[in-house]
Amino acid sequence: MLSGKAVGRVAAVLLIVGLLQGVPSYSQVSGDEPAVADPAVENCADHEDPEDYVWDSADVIEILLNETAITASGAGATVDGSVLTITRAGTYNISGVLADGQIVVDSTDKGTVRLILDGVDIHCSWSAAIVVEKAKKTVVVLAEDTENYLSDGRSGVVEGSQAEEPNAVIFSRDDLTICGAGWLSVCGDVNDGISSKDGLIIAGGTIDIDVVDDGIRGKDYLVVRGGDILVSAGGDGLKSDNEQDDAKGYVSIEAGALNIVSGADAIQAQTDVMIADGEVTVRSGGGTNRRAGAATAGKGISAGVSVTVNGGDLNVNSGDDALHSNDSLAINGGTFVLSSTDDAIHADSAVEINGGDIQVTWCYEGVDSNAISVTGGTIQIVSSDDGIIAAEHVSIADGVIDITAAGDAIAAQADVTIAGGKLILSSGGGSNTRITATTSAKGIKGVGSVVIDGGDLTVDSADDAVHSDANVTINGGVFAISSGDDGIHANADLVINGGDIHIAKAYEGLESTDANIVINGGRIRIVSSDDGINVSAGGDEFAMGWPGGWPGGGGVTPEASSDCYLYVNGGYLVIDAAGDGIDSNGAVVMTDGVVIVHGPTSNMNAALDHLSFQMTGGFLLAAGNSGMAQAPSTSSTQYSILLTFNTMLSAQTLVHIQNGSGQDILSFVPGKQYNSVAFSSQDLVKGSTYDVYYGGSSTGTASDGLYQDGTYTPGTKYASFTISSMVTNVGVNTGGGGAPGGGGNVPGGGGGAVRR
After folding, report:
1. CA-CA distance, 302 to 323, in Å (whole number)?
2. Mean pLDDT taken over the chain
3. Three-class DSSP labels, 557-599
4. What are phi and psi of 549, to 5 degrees?
5. In whole angstroms, what is the distance from residue 712 CA to residue 539 CA?
6. Nearest CA among 227, 86, 233, 104 for reference residue 170
7. What pLDDT sits at residue 599?
């Protein structure tokens, strides 16, 4: 949010809505005068008036320049050799060539001094071509269809004590306005092109400036309301630098076309830069082809307090930040093409993007600030490091954000909150790229919490797709994730309350390394090269430090951790894992929801891997290899079976369970070869007998391998069993259920029919 002083400065420049771009003839302009907004400000109130742009041709004083001589037709102008001094308010029409001379305005009148440049060529070898020493207000009019040339002939930049001398080709100690429909060339071999010690307004004209230092400078303010301005400057392009009054020192661009090539900043303000409209094309500090040196800032647009862009077309190629503020920066509209050697958009305090079409073709970091808020607009970023990076918070409520980042796509040292919008994020080269252990290339990263309430998110990351060093909470949104590491990772709690989450590729789908994973709702699909879900109480090192101690592996099995839980209280979860489908180094508690696991084919992994699994409700189905297979614990309150086949069944081989009445209890087609199925449902009833088949077919509708409705055509009957305990082991037992809570006729298991 802009400060109160910044808001005041925004109001200060909204004075004239429809100024004349030029005066077609030297006569009183008829018709309605330009509309003027309420000048309720201290800055421009006495500077600009509609009468500045109209005059009576009968009152014009003609000035003729003739190489070394000057002729004046009326009072108010005196000539001393090649120096013309204007001492009275009025309108002066100046034409001709002055080989080495000067126009001086030195008037104590309360009226306006108006200089009409009607085809002049003025060169001054010792000072400024036009100097305003004193005047209430000076207006320079570029006569229509004329070419005007102003130049100085000194060499080098005036510095130190001489800086107060006239140090520009056009120099004014008081308010200055430039308007008209003519053409003006300003060529300066010393310091600035056009400079005012007070305010400077450019309302029209075609102005071409080529100078060794700053192009256009208005100390109190620089307002561009129109014109076609071309600046080539060794220093700053446009500048306002009042350091004593924090209500001044601003640059406002309301209309016109600007093309700026600068050695330092293209547009620089002591306080604020405000852009409402216009076309702004800048190349600063050598652009992205070279890094600006320590003594040369090279920023595209730079402000000491705030940058506000409400509209316009901006094309910035900068050797430093493209858009920069020492405090706040707000983008509410406009079209941007930004290319930067450093940050594309930077503010020390806060960045707000509420609209606009922003394309960052190259940068080090795309958007960099303490706090970043996006509520609208379209943002495309290509960065050699992070796309969006905040020292504290990132908040995204809406908008379209497309980021291709070598580092993290979105990162915050505190919290990340996403409530809406469409995000397309690629980090570190994408999920097929291998990165070093010290490289961070995450899709969304928060050192604090990450909270996602909504939005449409597509993430392709070399590192974790969604990561928090603290908690991750997902309440909604649509996710399409491909990750070279974890799909969603939290060092603390990972809570999913809703959303549609599709993790198409990941090393591990969901991971919490030092706390809990809680699934209360949502639809989740995971494809992982290792564990689908991993909950550990001691980080990855703890999980990998169990040689010989895995459940059922014959070694020492660690105790369940009270700090490490997987809670499934709702939702719909489908896992396709090459490693463990669900791996909890502590306990699993399932009270509701649907969990379907297409588990591992290797006997070193299991569809379910846990120290304790309390099953009190919901639907659980986990197929995989029997080598380390587990069922829920016998302390559960909902019945389960652990079904083991005496041979490996091929993928897409249907497994069917029906009750004694022939009613379908389960028809399921695992996506990979399997010889073990763990199953728990409220349809399993104590004392009831069930038949198991494999093969055959169903006329029902399959979703995620699970058939609904339809008629089963039997394949091969494998076994019959009766539910007599909380966990029933059915079929050939391989010893994998021997971990705590294992099922079947093994320690800790329940009874049941075992086919051998």
Report:
1. 6
2. 88
3. CCCCCCCCEEEEEEEEEEEEECCCCEEECCEEEEEEEEEEEEC
4. -115, 10
5. 45
6. 104
7. 92
